[in-house]
Design a protein that fits this description.
Elements lengths: L1 H6 L10 H29 L8 H6 L8 H4 L10 H19 L5 H17 L7 H19 L4 H23 L4 H4 L3 H8 L5 H7 L3 H17 L11 H21 L5 H9 L12 H4 L14 H28 L12 H4 L6 H12 L16 E9 L5 E3 L22 H17 L7 H8 L6 H6 L3 H4 L14 E11 L2 H7 L3 E9 L1
Antiparallel strand pairs: 1-2, 1-3, 3-4
Helix pairs in contact: 2-5, 2-7, 2-14, 5-6, 6-7, 7-8, 7-14, 7-16, 8-12, 8-16, 13-14, 19-20
Length: 518
Amino acid sequence: MMIEETISSSPSLKISHRRVTNVILRGIGMVYLFAFIPLMLQIPGLFGRNGLAPADRFLDTYSKFGILKFLINPTIVWISTNDLFLQGTCALGIVLSILLLLGFHRTWIALGTWIIFTSLAAANLTFFRYIWDNFLMEMGFCAVLLTFLRSSSTATLWLIRFLMFRLFFMMGYVKFFSNDPKWKDLLFIKYYLSNQPMPTFISWLLYQLPDLWHKVMGICTLVIEFGCPVFFFTPTRFRTLRVSIFWIYTCFLSILLLSGNYGYFQVLGIVGCISILEDSDLKRIPLLDSIPIKAQLYKVPHNLNLRARIGRAMAVFLTLTGAMWVVHMVERSPEISFCDTTWIFRSSPTLIPKPLIQVLLWSNLWKVSFPYDLFSHIPETRYDFNVQGSMDGRDWVDYGFFYKSSHPDEIAYNVAPFQWRLDHHFFYKALVEGFQTRLVQPKSPSIGFFYLNLGLSNLLQSLVSGNPQVAALFRVNPFKNNPPKYARLLLYEEVFANYNEWRKSGNFWKRTFIKSIQ
Protein backbone atom coordinates (compact mmCIF):
# COMPACT_ATOMS: atom_id res chain seq x y z
CA MET A 1 0.00 0.00 0.00
CA MET A 2 2.82 2.40 0.88
CA ILE A 3 4.46 1.73 -2.46
CA GLU A 4 1.26 2.43 -4.37
CA GLU A 5 0.77 5.68 -2.43
CA THR A 6 4.32 6.75 -3.22
CA ILE A 7 3.91 5.95 -6.91
CA SER A 8 0.55 7.72 -7.04
CA SER A 9 1.84 10.88 -5.39
CA SER A 10 1.94 12.75 -8.70
CA PRO A 11 -1.45 12.71 -10.46
CA SER A 12 0.12 13.72 -13.76
CA LEU A 13 1.91 10.36 -14.09
CA LYS A 14 0.51 7.19 -15.54
CA ILE A 15 0.85 4.31 -13.14
CA SER A 16 -0.67 1.49 -15.19
CA HIS A 17 2.62 -0.04 -16.33
CA ARG A 18 5.11 0.48 -13.52
CA ARG A 19 4.70 -2.90 -11.90
CA VAL A 20 4.77 -4.57 -15.31
CA THR A 21 7.97 -2.67 -16.15
CA ASN A 22 9.49 -3.75 -12.85
CA VAL A 23 8.67 -7.42 -13.49
CA ILE A 24 10.02 -7.33 -17.05
CA LEU A 25 13.30 -5.70 -16.00
CA ARG A 26 13.78 -8.23 -13.20
CA GLY A 27 13.01 -11.01 -15.68
CA ILE A 28 15.56 -9.71 -18.18
CA GLY A 29 18.14 -9.57 -15.39
CA MET A 30 17.38 -13.20 -14.55
CA VAL A 31 17.81 -14.24 -18.19
CA TYR A 32 21.11 -12.38 -18.40
CA LEU A 33 22.26 -14.51 -15.46
CA PHE A 34 21.24 -17.67 -17.30
CA ALA A 35 23.36 -16.49 -20.24
CA PHE A 36 26.44 -15.21 -18.41
CA ILE A 37 27.02 -17.97 -15.84
CA PRO A 38 27.63 -20.90 -18.24
CA LEU A 39 29.33 -18.60 -20.74
CA MET A 40 31.94 -17.54 -18.20
CA LEU A 41 32.91 -21.19 -17.74
CA GLN A 42 33.13 -21.84 -21.48
CA ILE A 43 34.93 -18.73 -22.72
CA PRO A 44 38.52 -20.14 -22.54
CA GLY A 45 37.62 -23.23 -24.57
CA LEU A 46 35.33 -21.50 -27.05
CA PHE A 47 36.91 -18.19 -28.04
CA GLY A 48 39.73 -17.59 -25.57
CA ARG A 49 43.35 -17.35 -26.72
CA ASN A 50 43.62 -21.16 -26.94
CA GLY A 51 39.98 -21.81 -27.73
CA LEU A 52 38.36 -23.48 -30.71
CA ALA A 53 37.73 -20.14 -32.43
CA PRO A 54 39.92 -17.48 -30.76
CA ALA A 55 38.44 -14.00 -30.55
CA ASP A 56 41.67 -12.35 -31.70
CA ARG A 57 41.63 -14.30 -34.97
CA PHE A 58 37.98 -13.47 -35.50
CA LEU A 59 38.55 -9.77 -34.88
CA ASP A 60 41.58 -9.80 -37.21
CA THR A 61 39.18 -10.41 -40.10
CA TYR A 62 37.95 -6.84 -39.59
CA SER A 63 41.43 -5.30 -39.81
CA LYS A 64 40.95 -4.59 -43.53
CA PHE A 65 38.35 -1.97 -42.61
CA GLY A 66 40.88 0.13 -40.71
CA ILE A 67 39.38 2.55 -38.22
CA LEU A 68 35.90 1.62 -39.44
CA LYS A 69 36.28 -1.79 -37.80
CA PHE A 70 35.13 -0.24 -34.52
CA LEU A 71 31.86 0.79 -36.17
CA ILE A 72 31.33 -2.37 -38.20
CA ASN A 73 31.90 -4.62 -35.22
CA PRO A 74 31.38 -2.58 -32.02
CA THR A 75 32.72 -4.49 -29.03
CA ILE A 76 34.78 -3.68 -25.95
CA VAL A 77 36.79 -6.82 -26.69
CA TRP A 78 38.88 -4.63 -29.00
CA ILE A 79 40.57 -3.62 -25.74
CA SER A 80 41.91 -7.12 -25.10
CA THR A 81 41.25 -10.72 -26.11
CA ASN A 82 43.03 -12.09 -23.06
CA ASP A 83 41.10 -14.88 -21.30
CA LEU A 84 41.24 -13.04 -18.00
CA PHE A 85 39.76 -9.91 -19.58
CA LEU A 86 37.00 -11.87 -21.32
CA GLN A 87 36.04 -13.78 -18.17
CA GLY A 88 36.35 -10.66 -16.04
CA THR A 89 34.00 -8.85 -18.39
CA CYS A 90 31.58 -11.75 -18.15
CA ALA A 91 31.85 -11.67 -14.34
CA LEU A 92 30.97 -7.98 -14.38
CA GLY A 93 27.96 -8.88 -16.50
CA ILE A 94 26.90 -11.35 -13.81
CA VAL A 95 27.11 -8.63 -11.14
CA LEU A 96 25.04 -6.19 -13.22
CA SER A 97 22.51 -8.94 -13.98
CA ILE A 98 22.06 -9.59 -10.28
CA LEU A 99 21.46 -5.88 -9.70
CA LEU A 100 18.75 -5.87 -12.38
CA LEU A 101 17.21 -9.00 -10.89
CA LEU A 102 17.18 -7.41 -7.43
CA GLY A 103 15.30 -4.38 -8.73
CA PHE A 104 18.07 -1.79 -9.15
CA HIS A 105 16.78 -0.48 -12.44
CA ARG A 106 19.25 2.24 -13.28
CA THR A 107 20.02 3.07 -16.89
CA TRP A 108 23.76 2.58 -16.46
CA ILE A 109 23.16 -0.94 -15.10
CA ALA A 110 20.91 -1.99 -18.00
CA LEU A 111 23.20 -0.34 -20.54
CA GLY A 112 26.34 -1.91 -19.07
CA THR A 113 24.79 -5.37 -19.09
CA TRP A 114 23.69 -4.99 -22.70
CA ILE A 115 27.10 -3.70 -23.82
CA ILE A 116 28.88 -6.61 -22.13
CA PHE A 117 26.67 -9.29 -23.66
CA THR A 118 26.70 -7.78 -27.16
CA SER A 119 30.48 -7.31 -26.92
CA LEU A 120 31.07 -10.95 -26.05
CA ALA A 121 28.77 -11.99 -28.89
CA ALA A 122 30.59 -9.69 -31.32
CA ALA A 123 33.95 -11.13 -30.19
CA ASN A 124 33.13 -14.34 -32.04
CA LEU A 125 29.80 -14.75 -33.79
CA THR A 126 30.64 -18.41 -34.34
CA PHE A 127 29.10 -19.35 -31.01
CA PHE A 128 26.36 -16.70 -30.92
CA ARG A 129 24.29 -17.45 -33.99
CA TYR A 130 21.29 -18.69 -32.09
CA ILE A 131 17.88 -17.06 -32.07
CA TRP A 132 17.88 -16.70 -28.28
CA ASP A 133 21.12 -14.71 -28.35
CA ASN A 134 19.62 -12.23 -30.82
CA PHE A 135 16.41 -12.16 -28.81
CA LEU A 136 18.28 -11.31 -25.60
CA MET A 137 20.28 -8.55 -27.27
CA GLU A 138 17.10 -6.94 -28.59
CA MET A 139 15.21 -7.36 -25.32
CA GLY A 140 18.27 -6.09 -23.46
CA PHE A 141 18.19 -2.87 -25.46
CA CYS A 142 14.50 -2.52 -24.64
CA ALA A 143 15.53 -2.82 -20.97
CA VAL A 144 17.87 0.15 -21.49
CA LEU A 145 14.95 2.19 -22.82
CA LEU A 146 12.69 1.10 -19.95
CA THR A 147 15.19 2.26 -17.34
CA PHE A 148 15.93 5.45 -19.26
CA LEU A 149 12.27 6.43 -19.43
CA ARG A 150 11.43 5.24 -15.91
CA SER A 151 7.84 6.36 -15.34
CA SER A 152 7.01 6.92 -19.02
CA SER A 153 7.57 3.41 -20.36
CA THR A 154 4.38 2.88 -22.37
CA ALA A 155 6.05 3.39 -25.77
CA THR A 156 8.80 0.87 -24.95
CA LEU A 157 6.27 -1.69 -23.71
CA TRP A 158 4.47 -1.35 -27.03
CA LEU A 159 7.84 -1.88 -28.70
CA ILE A 160 8.27 -5.13 -26.75
CA ARG A 161 4.75 -6.17 -27.73
CA PHE A 162 5.66 -5.60 -31.36
CA LEU A 163 8.89 -7.57 -30.85
CA MET A 164 6.87 -10.47 -29.46
CA PHE A 165 4.42 -10.18 -32.35
CA ARG A 166 7.08 -10.38 -35.04
CA LEU A 167 9.02 -13.08 -33.17
CA PHE A 168 6.08 -15.47 -33.18
CA PHE A 169 4.59 -14.28 -36.46
CA MET A 170 7.87 -14.75 -38.32
CA MET A 171 8.37 -18.21 -36.82
CA GLY A 172 4.81 -19.16 -37.77
CA TYR A 173 5.04 -17.65 -41.23
CA VAL A 174 8.15 -19.58 -42.26
CA LYS A 175 6.51 -22.81 -41.11
CA PHE A 176 3.23 -22.13 -42.89
CA PHE A 177 4.91 -21.27 -46.20
CA SER A 178 7.98 -23.48 -45.95
CA ASN A 179 6.81 -26.15 -48.43
CA ASP A 180 8.11 -28.73 -45.99
CA PRO A 181 5.99 -31.89 -46.45
CA LYS A 182 6.19 -32.56 -42.71
CA TRP A 183 4.11 -29.44 -42.12
CA LYS A 184 1.66 -30.40 -44.82
CA ASP A 185 0.95 -33.78 -43.22
CA LEU A 186 1.06 -32.10 -39.75
CA LEU A 187 3.67 -34.51 -38.38
CA PHE A 188 6.28 -31.80 -38.01
CA ILE A 189 6.14 -31.97 -34.20
CA LYS A 190 7.01 -35.67 -34.24
CA TYR A 191 10.13 -35.01 -36.31
CA TYR A 192 10.95 -31.98 -34.18
CA LEU A 193 10.93 -34.00 -30.94
CA SER A 194 13.52 -36.48 -32.16
CA ASN A 195 15.57 -34.38 -34.59
CA GLN A 196 16.17 -31.26 -32.52
CA PRO A 197 19.72 -30.57 -31.28
CA MET A 198 19.46 -32.12 -27.80
CA PRO A 199 16.22 -34.06 -27.21
CA THR A 200 15.33 -34.71 -23.57
CA PHE A 201 13.56 -37.54 -21.79
CA ILE A 202 10.31 -35.59 -22.05
CA SER A 203 10.89 -35.31 -25.81
CA TRP A 204 11.23 -39.08 -25.97
CA LEU A 205 8.03 -39.58 -23.96
CA LEU A 206 6.03 -37.21 -26.14
CA TYR A 207 7.41 -38.90 -29.25
CA GLN A 208 5.69 -42.13 -28.18
CA LEU A 209 2.22 -40.57 -28.39
CA PRO A 210 -0.06 -41.41 -31.36
CA ASP A 211 0.23 -39.53 -34.65
CA LEU A 212 -3.16 -37.94 -34.02
CA TRP A 213 -1.71 -36.16 -30.98
CA HIS A 214 1.23 -34.89 -33.04
CA LYS A 215 -1.14 -33.57 -35.71
CA VAL A 216 -3.24 -31.74 -33.12
CA MET A 217 -0.08 -30.23 -31.63
CA GLY A 218 1.04 -29.22 -35.13
CA ILE A 219 -2.22 -27.35 -35.68
CA CYS A 220 -1.95 -25.71 -32.25
CA THR A 221 1.60 -24.61 -33.00
CA LEU A 222 0.58 -22.97 -36.27
CA VAL A 223 -2.37 -21.21 -34.62
CA ILE A 224 -0.30 -19.95 -31.68
CA GLU A 225 2.66 -18.81 -33.78
CA PHE A 226 0.88 -17.61 -36.91
CA GLY A 227 -2.62 -16.68 -35.74
CA CYS A 228 -2.44 -15.48 -32.15
CA PRO A 229 0.39 -12.88 -32.30
CA VAL A 230 -2.09 -10.19 -33.37
CA PHE A 231 -3.55 -10.37 -29.85
CA PHE A 232 -0.38 -8.79 -28.45
CA PHE A 233 -2.07 -5.53 -29.49
CA THR A 234 -5.25 -6.22 -27.50
CA PRO A 235 -6.89 -2.95 -26.37
CA THR A 236 -6.89 -1.99 -22.69
CA ARG A 237 -10.57 -2.72 -22.11
CA PHE A 238 -10.24 -6.45 -22.97
CA ARG A 239 -8.54 -7.49 -19.74
CA THR A 240 -9.66 -11.12 -19.75
CA LEU A 241 -8.44 -11.61 -23.30
CA ARG A 242 -5.05 -10.12 -22.46
CA VAL A 243 -4.57 -12.40 -19.47
CA SER A 244 -5.74 -15.41 -21.48
CA ILE A 245 -3.24 -14.73 -24.26
CA PHE A 246 -0.48 -14.36 -21.68
CA TRP A 247 -1.32 -17.79 -20.23
CA ILE A 248 -1.61 -19.41 -23.66
CA TYR A 249 1.91 -18.31 -24.60
CA THR A 250 3.27 -19.08 -21.14
CA CYS A 251 1.98 -22.66 -21.33
CA PHE A 252 3.18 -23.05 -24.92
CA LEU A 253 6.68 -21.82 -24.09
CA SER A 254 6.82 -23.91 -20.91
CA ILE A 255 6.12 -27.07 -22.90
CA LEU A 256 8.90 -26.13 -25.32
CA LEU A 257 11.22 -25.45 -22.39
CA LEU A 258 10.65 -28.92 -20.94
CA SER A 259 10.86 -30.77 -24.26
CA GLY A 260 14.00 -29.20 -25.71
CA ASN A 261 17.30 -27.50 -24.98
CA TYR A 262 17.02 -24.06 -26.52
CA GLY A 263 18.86 -22.07 -23.91
CA TYR A 264 16.93 -19.25 -22.31
CA PHE A 265 14.70 -18.65 -25.35
CA GLN A 266 11.46 -19.80 -23.74
CA VAL A 267 12.09 -18.06 -20.41
CA LEU A 268 12.85 -14.79 -22.19
CA GLY A 269 9.74 -15.31 -24.31
CA ILE A 270 7.60 -15.57 -21.17
CA VAL A 271 9.21 -12.39 -19.83
CA GLY A 272 8.41 -10.62 -23.09
CA CYS A 273 4.80 -11.79 -22.97
CA ILE A 274 4.35 -9.91 -19.69
CA SER A 275 4.36 -6.73 -21.79
CA ILE A 276 0.80 -7.48 -22.90
CA LEU A 277 -0.38 -7.02 -19.31
CA GLU A 278 -1.13 -3.93 -17.29
CA ASP A 279 -0.62 -3.41 -13.58
CA SER A 280 -4.25 -4.20 -12.82
CA ASP A 281 -3.89 -7.54 -14.63
CA LEU A 282 -1.14 -8.67 -12.27
CA LYS A 283 -3.72 -9.07 -9.49
CA ARG A 284 -4.91 -12.14 -11.40
CA ILE A 285 -1.37 -13.55 -11.37
CA PRO A 286 -0.34 -13.59 -7.68
CA LEU A 287 3.23 -14.73 -8.39
CA LEU A 288 3.93 -11.65 -10.53
CA ASP A 289 1.89 -9.30 -8.38
CA SER A 290 3.94 -10.23 -5.31
CA ILE A 291 7.23 -9.04 -6.84
CA PRO A 292 8.23 -5.88 -4.95
CA ILE A 293 8.95 -2.62 -6.72
CA LYS A 294 11.49 -0.01 -5.62
CA ALA A 295 9.24 3.03 -5.95
CA GLN A 296 12.09 5.53 -5.61
CA LEU A 297 13.49 4.30 -8.95
CA TYR A 298 10.25 5.28 -10.70
CA LYS A 299 10.05 8.89 -9.59
CA VAL A 300 9.77 11.57 -12.24
CA PRO A 301 13.22 12.42 -13.66
CA HIS A 302 13.91 16.13 -13.90
CA ASN A 303 14.33 15.85 -17.69
CA LEU A 304 11.35 13.59 -18.37
CA ASN A 305 10.24 15.42 -21.52
CA LEU A 306 13.68 15.09 -23.13
CA ARG A 307 13.92 11.45 -22.10
CA ALA A 308 10.44 10.78 -23.47
CA ARG A 309 11.31 12.30 -26.85
CA ILE A 310 14.51 10.28 -27.14
CA GLY A 311 12.91 7.07 -25.93
CA ARG A 312 9.89 7.36 -28.18
CA ALA A 313 12.08 8.19 -31.17
CA MET A 314 14.10 5.02 -30.52
CA ALA A 315 10.90 3.00 -30.10
CA VAL A 316 9.57 4.30 -33.42
CA PHE A 317 12.89 3.60 -35.16
CA LEU A 318 13.08 0.02 -33.85
CA THR A 319 9.43 -0.57 -34.71
CA LEU A 320 10.10 0.51 -38.31
CA THR A 321 13.20 -1.69 -38.62
CA GLY A 322 11.27 -4.64 -37.18
CA ALA A 323 8.44 -3.99 -39.64
CA MET A 324 10.92 -4.01 -42.53
CA TRP A 325 12.25 -7.41 -41.42
CA VAL A 326 8.68 -8.70 -41.56
CA VAL A 327 8.11 -7.15 -45.00
CA HIS A 328 11.23 -8.75 -46.41
CA MET A 329 10.30 -12.11 -44.91
CA VAL A 330 6.91 -12.01 -46.63
CA GLU A 331 8.36 -11.07 -50.03
CA ARG A 332 11.37 -13.41 -49.99
CA SER A 333 11.50 -17.07 -51.00
CA PRO A 334 10.61 -19.44 -48.14
CA GLU A 335 13.96 -21.18 -48.70
CA ILE A 336 16.04 -18.09 -47.91
CA SER A 337 17.38 -18.13 -44.39
CA PHE A 338 17.86 -15.22 -42.04
CA CYS A 339 20.90 -16.83 -40.41
CA ASP A 340 23.30 -14.41 -42.05
CA THR A 341 21.80 -10.98 -42.60
CA THR A 342 24.76 -9.85 -44.71
CA TRP A 343 23.65 -11.86 -47.72
CA ILE A 344 19.88 -12.28 -47.48
CA PHE A 345 19.21 -9.16 -49.54
CA ARG A 346 21.59 -10.38 -52.23
CA SER A 347 20.01 -13.83 -52.32
CA SER A 348 16.47 -12.65 -53.03
CA PRO A 349 14.92 -9.55 -54.60
CA THR A 350 13.34 -6.98 -52.33
CA LEU A 351 11.09 -3.96 -52.65
CA ILE A 352 12.82 -2.27 -49.73
CA PRO A 353 14.87 0.74 -50.95
CA LYS A 354 18.64 0.39 -50.67
CA PRO A 355 19.02 3.16 -48.05
CA LEU A 356 16.57 1.34 -45.79
CA ILE A 357 18.41 -1.94 -46.37
CA GLN A 358 21.57 -0.26 -45.09
CA VAL A 359 19.65 0.95 -42.04
CA LEU A 360 18.53 -2.62 -41.37
CA LEU A 361 22.03 -4.01 -41.73
CA TRP A 362 23.53 -1.36 -39.46
CA SER A 363 20.84 -1.89 -36.83
CA ASN A 364 21.72 -5.56 -36.99
CA LEU A 365 25.46 -4.89 -36.70
CA TRP A 366 24.82 -2.73 -33.65
CA LYS A 367 22.71 -5.51 -32.10
CA VAL A 368 19.44 -3.59 -31.72
CA SER A 369 17.23 -5.26 -34.35
CA PHE A 370 17.11 -8.79 -35.74
CA PRO A 371 14.99 -10.96 -38.02
CA TYR A 372 13.61 -14.20 -36.63
CA ASP A 373 12.80 -17.49 -38.25
CA LEU A 374 12.93 -20.87 -36.60
CA PHE A 375 12.14 -24.37 -37.77
CA SER A 376 10.98 -23.57 -41.26
CA HIS A 377 12.42 -27.02 -42.00
CA ILE A 378 13.39 -29.93 -39.82
CA PRO A 379 15.65 -32.75 -41.05
CA GLU A 380 14.05 -36.13 -41.64
CA THR A 381 17.16 -37.92 -40.40
CA ARG A 382 19.12 -37.30 -37.24
CA TYR A 383 22.90 -37.56 -37.08
CA ASP A 384 25.16 -37.38 -34.05
CA PHE A 385 28.82 -37.62 -33.09
CA ASN A 386 30.91 -39.37 -30.48
CA VAL A 387 34.36 -37.99 -29.69
CA GLN A 388 37.07 -40.54 -28.89
CA GLY A 389 40.78 -40.61 -28.14
CA SER A 390 43.40 -43.33 -28.21
CA MET A 391 47.06 -43.81 -27.26
CA ASP A 392 47.74 -46.58 -29.77
CA GLY A 393 45.10 -46.23 -32.49
CA ARG A 394 43.46 -49.53 -31.47
CA ASP A 395 41.81 -49.00 -28.10
CA TRP A 396 39.53 -45.99 -28.15
CA VAL A 397 37.97 -44.21 -25.17
CA ASP A 398 35.02 -41.79 -25.25
CA TYR A 399 35.09 -38.19 -24.16
CA GLY A 400 31.92 -37.59 -22.17
CA PHE A 401 29.71 -34.62 -22.99
CA PHE A 402 28.23 -32.53 -20.22
CA TYR A 403 24.64 -32.73 -21.43
CA LYS A 404 24.48 -34.30 -24.90
CA SER A 405 24.00 -38.05 -25.07
CA SER A 406 27.03 -40.13 -26.05
CA HIS A 407 25.53 -43.64 -26.12
CA PRO A 408 22.22 -45.20 -27.16
CA ASP A 409 21.18 -45.72 -23.54
CA GLU A 410 21.63 -42.01 -22.74
CA ILE A 411 19.29 -39.09 -23.30
CA ALA A 412 20.29 -35.43 -23.08
CA TYR A 413 19.84 -33.64 -19.78
CA ASN A 414 17.34 -30.80 -19.76
CA VAL A 415 19.85 -28.04 -19.11
CA ALA A 416 17.68 -25.14 -20.35
CA PRO A 417 17.56 -22.24 -19.59
CA PHE A 418 21.35 -22.66 -19.48
CA GLN A 419 23.30 -23.64 -22.59
CA TRP A 420 26.50 -25.60 -23.05
CA ARG A 421 27.35 -24.33 -26.50
CA LEU A 422 29.78 -27.05 -27.60
CA ASP A 423 27.18 -29.78 -27.08
CA HIS A 424 24.65 -27.78 -29.06
CA HIS A 425 27.13 -27.07 -31.85
CA PHE A 426 27.76 -30.76 -32.46
CA PHE A 427 24.22 -31.21 -33.73
CA TYR A 428 24.84 -28.96 -36.74
CA LYS A 429 28.26 -30.40 -37.51
CA ALA A 430 26.86 -33.94 -37.44
CA LEU A 431 23.82 -32.93 -39.46
CA VAL A 432 25.72 -31.48 -42.42
CA GLU A 433 28.42 -34.17 -42.22
CA GLY A 434 25.61 -36.70 -42.53
CA PHE A 435 24.12 -34.87 -45.49
CA GLN A 436 27.47 -34.79 -47.25
CA THR A 437 28.05 -38.49 -46.59
CA ARG A 438 24.63 -39.41 -47.93
CA LEU A 439 25.11 -37.04 -50.88
CA VAL A 440 21.91 -35.24 -49.92
CA GLN A 441 21.73 -31.46 -50.15
CA PRO A 442 20.23 -29.78 -47.07
CA LYS A 443 16.91 -28.15 -47.87
CA SER A 444 17.60 -25.11 -45.74
CA PRO A 445 20.59 -22.88 -46.55
CA SER A 446 20.89 -22.11 -42.84
CA ILE A 447 22.22 -25.62 -42.23
CA GLY A 448 25.06 -25.15 -44.68
CA PHE A 449 25.76 -21.72 -43.28
CA PHE A 450 26.05 -23.07 -39.75
CA TYR A 451 28.41 -25.77 -40.96
CA LEU A 452 30.81 -23.27 -42.47
CA ASN A 453 30.89 -21.24 -39.27
CA LEU A 454 30.94 -23.86 -36.50
CA GLY A 455 34.47 -23.29 -35.26
CA LEU A 456 35.02 -27.02 -34.68
CA SER A 457 37.58 -27.62 -37.43
CA ASN A 458 40.50 -27.78 -35.00
CA LEU A 459 38.73 -29.75 -32.27
CA LEU A 460 40.60 -33.02 -32.80
CA GLN A 461 43.96 -31.26 -33.10
CA SER A 462 43.26 -29.40 -29.86
CA LEU A 463 42.59 -32.69 -28.05
CA VAL A 464 45.71 -34.35 -29.45
CA SER A 465 47.86 -31.38 -28.49
CA GLY A 466 46.52 -31.56 -24.94
CA ASN A 467 44.76 -28.19 -24.98
CA PRO A 468 43.35 -27.96 -21.42
CA GLN A 469 40.85 -25.22 -22.26
CA VAL A 470 39.19 -27.29 -24.98
CA ALA A 471 39.35 -30.50 -22.94
CA ALA A 472 37.52 -28.67 -20.13
CA LEU A 473 34.48 -28.36 -22.41
CA PHE A 474 33.92 -32.11 -21.93
CA ARG A 475 32.46 -33.64 -18.78
CA VAL A 476 34.79 -36.65 -18.98
CA ASN A 477 38.38 -36.29 -20.13
CA PRO A 478 39.94 -39.79 -20.09
CA PHE A 479 43.37 -38.33 -20.87
CA LYS A 480 43.94 -35.90 -18.03
CA ASN A 481 47.57 -36.85 -17.45
CA ASN A 482 48.71 -37.36 -21.03
CA PRO A 483 46.88 -36.22 -24.18
CA PRO A 484 45.88 -38.91 -26.67
CA LYS A 485 48.04 -39.55 -29.71
CA TYR A 486 44.95 -39.98 -31.85
CA ALA A 487 41.46 -38.49 -31.79
CA ARG A 488 38.44 -39.13 -33.96
CA LEU A 489 34.75 -38.40 -34.47
CA LEU A 490 32.30 -41.25 -34.97
CA LEU A 491 29.28 -40.27 -37.04
CA TYR A 492 25.99 -42.09 -36.43
CA GLU A 493 22.53 -41.99 -37.88
CA GLU A 494 19.95 -42.42 -35.14
CA VAL A 495 16.23 -42.49 -34.45
CA PHE A 496 14.22 -42.72 -31.25
CA ALA A 497 13.49 -46.24 -30.05
CA ASN A 498 9.86 -46.95 -29.26
CA TYR A 499 8.65 -47.82 -25.78
CA ASN A 500 8.82 -51.60 -26.24
CA GLU A 501 12.34 -51.42 -27.67
CA TRP A 502 13.41 -49.29 -24.74
CA ARG A 503 11.97 -51.77 -22.22
CA LYS A 504 13.89 -54.64 -23.82
CA SER A 505 17.23 -52.94 -24.39
CA GLY A 506 17.24 -49.87 -22.18
CA ASN A 507 18.26 -47.80 -25.22
CA PHE A 508 16.58 -44.54 -26.15
CA TRP A 509 18.22 -44.57 -29.57
CA LYS A 510 18.61 -46.96 -32.47
CA ARG A 511 21.98 -46.18 -34.02
CA THR A 512 23.62 -46.94 -37.34
CA PHE A 513 27.34 -46.28 -37.69
CA ILE A 514 28.24 -44.23 -40.77
CA LYS A 515 31.92 -43.29 -40.69
CA SER A 516 34.93 -42.24 -38.66
CA ILE A 517 36.58 -38.83 -39.05
CA GLN A 518 40.20 -38.33 -37.94
